[in-house]
Amino acid sequence: MLKKIALAAGLFSATALASNAVQADVKVGLLGGISGPIAAMAPPMLDSAKLAIQQVNEQGGILGGQKLEAVVGDSACNPQNGVDSATKLVNIEQVAGLIGPHCSGSVLAVANSVTVPAGITLITPSGTSPEITGLEDKGQVFRTVPSDDFQGRSLARTLLNLGTKKVAVAYLNNDYGSGLANAFKVEFEANGGEIAGYSAHEEGKASYRSNLAELSRGGADTLVIFDYGDGTGLTILRQALENGFFTNFVGGDGMKSDAIIRELGAENLTTFIASSPVGEKSNSLELFNEAYKSVGGNPDAIFVSNSYDAAFLMALALEKAGGEAAKVSEAMAAVSNGQGEAVLPGEWKKAVELIAAGKDIDYKGASGDLNFDNAGDVPGSYGLFKVEGDAFALQQALN
Amino acid sequence: MELIGLLNYAVFMAIFIGIYSLLALGLNIQWGFSGLFNAGIAGFFAVGAYSSALLTAPESAVHLGGYQLPVVVGWIGAMIAAGAIAWPIGKVCLRFRSDYLAIATIGVAEIIRLVVKSEGWMTGGARGVNKIPRPFGDLSYLYSQLAYLALVFAIVLVVYWAIERQISAPWGRMMRGIRDNEDAATAMGKDIKARRLEAFIFGAAVMGLGGALFAHFNRSITPEAIDPMIATFLIWIMLILGGSGNNRGALLGVAVVWIIWSASEFVTDQLPTEYAIKAKYMRVFIIGLLLQLVLRFRPEGILPEPQGTAGSPEVKTFQKQESAAK
Predict the structure, then answer these.
(1) What residues in B contact A14, CB-CB < 8 Å?
(2) Strands B220-221, B129-130: parallel, antiparallel or unpaired by DSSP?
(3) A110 band by pLDDT with thresholds 50, 70 and 90
(4) Are residues A259 and A299 in the same domain?
């Protein structure tokens, strides 16, 4: 009994502490996979989102000088913790908007059971599952990363245009790999291509020669790899080259990794091309890179620019909506739809003035122009890269 | 903080406690009453969640199904599917003694997770199953949560009642007999293999139902949910802390552990912001520490299994008869 009393007391003091946090600020939730499978990726992503919030506060704050505050939650990259943490952020912390969660499964669960019913807008920097597009979300779910569909489909069309009609596909068995591979396969076959081998592989094995041998049995001389170039993808590419299973190699954006050139040597990679997002012509990315470096971050870390954009867009949308949670989703769609005066990363003061003057603004993000479509998705702009010298060089844009 | 927000959070916690209660009650049948060390709860949770999802979800290009059956059918289907998967597993694995059974069931859960991830034609692979109907999902936030809570609460009550009844019946006493002294039970002519298989299937079916309730609550299920940390080991902690062999202990353990797990985030959030990321790991540490403390100072759990037979109905009747005879 004593234990129960002690526990109840602990709980009450915990909630009391939580309610004592500063009241006047505008709060946004920052929900990331801090513990769990993406624990290494999450901290830089959260740091870049915090950079956006820091810039907002340095340049006069939000909604007439209030301080924007980020409350960090841990989704652990699974729906159970994601929903739990989101419920706390939305109900106890009373956040005005949610940035995250990072993993697709958490995004789906959180949107379905917390944010959409509560009328809170959610923007994820790294949920790439095509299922997020089809959510019945009343327009309240956005993302700053293209769906896996975009890249897979455009890569399929480009390969066909280049005259490659028959390929084998090897993909990593997670949502990234299978999402890309599936979109690629559907589009490739729909446009008359032939998939001569299609198989998933698990991470971290020493040898993939049996997988490769089976894939090459279909008779294709081109292997498409959807994997990470500093992980399993490197092993697969190396073993395929060593044993001569295939002659041409195509990778997704995960394969455009310097580790591949370093480990395998540029002279062995003349038949290797990889698709990857192309930086926009604007200097948004450089602005972000500089700002992020100045706070000690590494701008090349994965998804950090997407995460920064998500946080900055959330701040813009809150400002435009006048802080009303119900209007944030509408405002979010309006601040980045390709119309209005351009706002670049870090230009918070300018954006506030434009919004106050009643003008339309168009945020040009560090990770791309980010013009939202009706489903809250952003189109990706991708290019095909080949190895030239000791680096990747753009060969052509994907269509 | 608004009162309605607090209420929403409390209702949400109660729903999760209900869902986890089913998993803990299922484990209690297997471990608490029958001594079967099942470390593959996540696997049966997944089978239940996916079966119910596929039976009730609308048609989709990425996975099997499109049957759109009523939710109740999905839930019954989840129990049948989880039980049906448990049958061959039990047939093979239950011959192992406790530690080996634990290793085998971890393996089985991992196999189920990989099948779910790899057999995309059936489960949607990494994309999972979406647009699963949620009962009362069209109501407003608070009311839909309250309605779902009522549903979960009713189901837990029925399952609790069924297990209590089964455990105080001769079957339950026999199971405890087998658990405590296998040789004696064999000598008395009990078919140990068959009885253990029954307990294993019964427990797995209850776990499957828990999985189904989880999938419908979130309207989606993805392989990320089959995380052994959150779907196996957390439940073990709940059961051991609450008191295995006692259903009320299991329920109490679930409530205590989930409330600590969830609410400890508020406490760790009070740390300075530069520790914000490290602080999240404190929660995992707290749970581990709690388990260590309980195992050290109160290994039987908060509410231990009632000892002796003084409370059982036969003894009472027997005592009555005796006193009447006097």
Answers:
(1) 263-264, 266-267
(2) antiparallel
(3) very high
(4) no
User: Does A399 score more than 80 pLDDT?
Assistant: no
Cα Rg of chain B (Å, integer)? 21
CB–CB of A182 and B62 under 8 A?
Answer: yes
Radius of gyration over every alpha carbon of chain A, rounded to an integer in angstroms: 23
CA distance linking residue A275 with residue A284, whole number of Å: 21
A253 in the same domain as A162: yes
Question: Confidence class of residue A21 from pLDDT cuts 50, 70 and 90?
Answer: very low
Summarised one tens digit per residue, pLDDT across range B202-241 is: 999 999 999 999 999 999 999 999 988 899 999 999 999 9
Segment A147-172 shows an average pLDDT of: 90
Give residue B98's pLDDT: 72
Residue A3 lies in a domain: no
Tokens in use for A220?
A: 């294709």
Q: Is residue B11 within 8 Å of B142, Cβ to Cβ?
A: yes
Which CATH number belongs to the domain containing residue A73 in this structure?
3.40.50.2300
Domain that holds residue A188: 149-270
pLDDT band, very low/low/confident/very high, at A22 (cuts 50, 70, 90): very low
Same domain, A208 and A317: no
- The domain spans of chain B are 3-226
Do A255 and A175 have their domain in common?
A: yes
B122 close contact with A: CB closer than 8 A? no
Q: Is A5 a residue whose pLDDT tops 80? A: no
Nearest alpha carbon to residue A123 among A55, A58, A44, A28: A28
Same domain, A70 and A94: yes
Indicate if A141 and A155 belong to the same structural domain.
no
In residues, how long is chain A?
Answer: 399
- Å from B210 to nearest chain A CA? 13
Min distance B240 CA to chain A CA atoms (Å): 16
CB A327 within 8 A of CB A96: no
Mutate which of A87, A93, A184 to test chain B, going by most B C-beta atoms within 10 A? Answer: A87
* Closest chain B C-alpha to A175 CA, distance in angstroms: 5
Per-residue pLDDT of B157-203, as tens digits, reads 999 999 999 999 999 999 999 999 989 999 999 999 999 999 999 99
Asked if B265's CB is within 8 angstroms of A117's CB, the reply is no
pLDDT for residue A122: 96
DSSP letter at A67?
A: P
What is the total count of domains within chain A? 2
- B297 interfacial to chain A (CB closer than 8 Å): no
Residues A38 and A117 in one domain: yes
Is A41 within 8 Å of chain B by CB? no
Give yes or no: residues A292 and A348 share one domain: yes
**In this predicted model, what pLDDT tens digit does every residue of B255-283 receive, in sequence order?**
999 999 998 888 887 877 777 788 888 88
Reported pTM: 0.85
| In contact, A70 and B276? CB cutoff 8 Å | no
